[in-house]
Design goal:
The complex is a heterodimer of chains A (42) and B (209). With 42 residues, chain A is mostly helical. Chain A is built from one helix and no strands. The radius of gyration of chain A is 18 Å and the shape is rod-shaped. The N and C termini of chain A lie far apart (58 Å). In chain A, 14% of the residues are buried. With 209 residues, chain B is an alpha+beta fold. Chain B has a single domain, classed as Beta Barrel (Sortase, Chain: A). The longest helix of chain B has 44 residues. Chain B is built from two helices and eight strands; from the N terminus they run αββαββββββ. Classes of the chains: A mainly alpha (42), B alpha+beta (209). Chains A and B meet through helix 1 of A and helix 1 and strand 7 of B.
C-alpha cells in the first residue's frame, strides 16, 4: 500500500494561513453587507 | 490536491467566516459600544449644568452636535442605564440610543424632524431609537416594559420621570410616530422581534414629574 507523502510543515502552514484569510475575508464581507443592508437600530 | 478537497476546505473556511461574523455581530459590537459609552460618560460628567427654560427643557439655542451625549436614560425594570446621543444615524446608534433631532445643520431628512424636536421635560414627543440585537443591545428587553414602569431621563437641566402607557408594533415603513404632540411624552423605538428587523416596537411613556 502506498502511504501518502507527508508535505513539509512550511507548506502546510501556508495553506492554513490561506484558509484563515478566506475565513476572515468572508467575515469582513458579511460585516460590510450587514452594515449596508440592516436597519440602523437592528 | 484534489478538487473535492479544495472545495471542501474552502467551504469550511467560509463557514468559519460566517461564525466569526455572528460572533462579531452579537458580542464584538458590544465592545465598541461599551468603549464609546465610557467616553460619553466622561464627556457628560464634565459638561456643566444648564438652567431649565420656561418650557421645562434646556435654554433656547441648545443644539448639541451629532453623536454628543445629551441625557442619561435609566429604566429600572429592565436594568437599563445608557447615555443617549444626539442623532439616529448608524454612526450615532453604535454609540448608544439616539435622540431624534430636528432638521438643522448636520442633520438631514429622513433622520430628523422638520419641526422642533422636544427635549425631556418639555411638551411634545421625545423620540429615542436604539439597537435591539447588536451594539450592546440597549433595547433588548424593551418588550418586557409594562404599563406604569418608570423611565428616568437625567439631563443637564433636571431629572424627568416618565411612566409607560402603552406599547405598539408597527411596520418598518411606518413613520407616524414622528409627529408633533401636545403631551409631554417619551417614545422609545427599536427593531422587533429580536434578531429581526421585520417590525418596529414602539413604547410610549408620559411625563409624571
Amino acid at each position: 500500500m502506498n502511504r501518502r507523502q507527508r508535505r513539509p510543515w512550511r507548506s502546510r502552514l501556508l495553506e492554513l494561513l490561506l484558509w484563515a484569510a478566506v475565513a476572515v475575508a468572508t467575515a469582513v464581507i458579511m460585516v460590510l453587507l450587514s452594515e449596508r443592508f440592516l436597519p440602523a437600530n437592528f | 490536491m484534489k478538487v473535492v478537497e479544495v472545495i471542501g476546505k474552502f467551504l469550511i473556511s467560509v463557514g468559519v467566516g460566517i461564525l466569526l461574523f455572528v460572533a462579531w455581530t452579537l458580542w464584538g459590537t458590544r465592545l465598541y459600544t461599551d468603549g464609546q459609552q465610557a467616553a460619553l460618560a466622561d464627556e457628560f460628567g464634565a459638561a456643566p449644568r444648564v438652567s431649565v427654560s420656561r418650557s421645562g427643557g434646556p435654554p433656547e439655542g441648545y443644539a448639541p452636535a451629532r453623536g454628543e451625549a445629551v441625557f442619561r436614560l435609566r429604566i429600572p425594570s429592565i436594568r437599563l442605564i445608557r447615555l443617549v446621543v444626539e442623532g439616529v444615524g448608524s454612526e450615532e446608534l453604535r454609540k448608544g440610543p439616539g435622540h431624534y433631532p430636528e432638521c438643522r445643520r448636520g442633520f438631514s431628512p429622513p433622520l430628523c424632524m422638520d419641526f422642533d424636536s422636544p427635549w425631556p421635560g418639555e411638551t411634545g414627543r421625545v423620540i429615542v431609537s436604539g439597537h435591539r440585537t447588536t451594539y450592546g443591545q440597549p433595547f433588548w428587553d424593551l418588550d418586557k416594559l409594562e404599563r406604569g414602569d418608570e423611565i428616568v431621563t437625567v439631563t443637564k437641566w433636571g431629572t424627568f420621570t416618565y411612566e409607560v402607557t402603552r406599547k405598539q408594533i408597527v411596520q418598518p415603513t411606518d413613520a407616524t410616530i414622528v409627529r408633533p404632540s401636545d403631551v409631554a411624552e417619551l417614545v422609545l423605538t427599536t427593531c422587533n422581534p429580536r434578531f429581526s428587523a421585520s417590525q418596529r416596537l414602539i413604547v410610549y411613556a408620559e411625563l409624571r414629574r
